[in-house]
């Protein structure tokens, strides 16, 4: 009897803890992220800084603008790039709280690595096969587009944009089996797009080539306290999570084996000191910083004109000028691609994007009503 009561008590305690976690996350996700802090950590990618010419950074705004863009990251920059590529006479104002690319874009993981096989089946089950294929193709196109623009603008060498290989490493046999099944399903549906994807078994994976290389290593968020849940809904980039830091700095030597771990890295960017007061480490971990990843309630980007019911504003109409509107483009799964579509929408050229733009990303009242925080929280709990 005592054993039964103990189990029931443990179950009730677990349920209470789960309820408290859910309540905390739900409240936090409904809060405004606030304004960017003045003392953020310094990402490796933003040094040395790129000094861009600016007409005015004093805060004095022009009396008129055709388009006002909030944020100078990949989303805002892509909108402006695509607008001016098609309508060079537009008057555009870009607003930025801190420095150029100082937000989520400058705090990225340094790669464009969209989920492809990972959620193809889920997309197909929810939205149909055609939409799933369009979405995967849209995600794959980002790297090609970024490389094209870098070459076209003559910044390929400076930006170091290049195509590399990526590994998804699985430690759990069950998760590995599930992922292999997802990969096979995607291969069957999109054989051309998936032709370079390979699943290695244990015996194949341990045969690694010798040599010393710099590695980009992630996954620290999931290793943080309480599976990273305390980090959800936090936009403060002034601090780093020490649990994640410890994992990222110490896991690779353990995975490879201390006897196989290479020599200390040689600093090739002018010594340990970067520009200003920032210093990069000369050892195995060169730099760590706090990142920001924006995820919407339904895990998809939101692109398009914001309905008046959502914005709370009814724009005036005019026979002379186009009606003003609030447009929105989010980065998650977009890598700037959604902003290209947004630019076409602003210019009333939507017929040019019908073939490649996933319509499930469009902002609508119906989608807004169906997007629930509960679904997002369930993904992390």
TrEMBL record:
Q: What is this protein called?
A: FAD dependent oxidoreductase domain-containing protein
Q: Which organism is it from?
A: Pycnoporus cinnabarinus
Q: Which InterPro entries match?
A: FAD-dep_OxRdtase (IPR006076), FAD/NAD-bd_sf (IPR036188)
Q: Which residue ranges does the record annotate as region Disordered?
A: 311-340
Q: Name one Pfam family in it.
A: DAO
Q: Name one GO cellular component term.
A: cytoplasm
Residue ranges of the FAD dependent oxidoreductase domain? 66-194
């Amino acid at each position: 009897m005592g054993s039964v009561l103990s189990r029931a008590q443990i179950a009730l305690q677990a349920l209470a803890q789960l309820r408290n976690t859910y309540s905390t996350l739900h409240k936090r996700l409904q809060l405004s992220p606030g304004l960017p802090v003045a003392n953020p950590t310094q990402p490796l990618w933003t040094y040395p800084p790129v000094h861009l010419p600016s007409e005015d950074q004093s805060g004095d705004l022009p009396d008129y603008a055709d388009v006002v863009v909030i944020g100078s990251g990949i989303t805002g920059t892509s909108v402006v790039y695509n607008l001016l590529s098609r309508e060079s006479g537009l008057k555009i104002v870009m607003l930025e709280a801190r420095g150029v690319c100082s937000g989520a874009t400058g705090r990225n993981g340094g790669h464009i690595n969209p989920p492809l096989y990972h959620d193809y089946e889920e997309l197909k089950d929810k939205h149909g096969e055609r939409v799933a294929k369009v979405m995967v193709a849209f995600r794959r196109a980002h790297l090609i587009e970024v490389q094209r623009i870098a070459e076209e603008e003559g910044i390929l060498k400076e930006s170091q944009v290049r195509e590399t290989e990526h590994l998804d490493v699985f430690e759990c046999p069950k998760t590995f089996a599930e992922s292999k099944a997802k990969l096979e399903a995607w291969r069957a549906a999109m054989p051309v797009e998936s032709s370079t994807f390979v699943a290695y078994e244990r015996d194949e994976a341990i045969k690694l080539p010798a040599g010393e290389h710099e590695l980009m290593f992630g996954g620290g968020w999931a290793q943080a306290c309480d599976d990273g849940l305390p980090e959800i809904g936090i936009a403060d980039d002034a601090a780093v999570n020490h649990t994640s830091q410890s994992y990222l700095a110490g896991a690779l030597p353990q995975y490879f084996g201390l006897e196989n771990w290479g020599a200390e890295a040689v600093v090739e960017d002018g010594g340990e000191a970067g520009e200003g007061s920032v210093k990069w480490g000369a050892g195995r971990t060169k730099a760590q910083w706090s990142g920001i990843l924006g995820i919407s309630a339904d895990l998809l980007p939101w692109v398009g004109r914001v309905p008046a019911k959502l914005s709370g504003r009814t724009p005036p109409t005019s026979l002379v000028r186009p009606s003003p509107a609030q447009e929105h483009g989010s980065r998650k799964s977009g890598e700037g691609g959604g902003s290209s579509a947004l630019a076409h929408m602003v210019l009333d050229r939507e017929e040019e994007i019908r073939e490649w733009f996933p319509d499930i990303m469009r902002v609508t009242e119906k989608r807004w009503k169906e997007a629930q925080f509960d679904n997002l929280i369930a993904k992390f709990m």
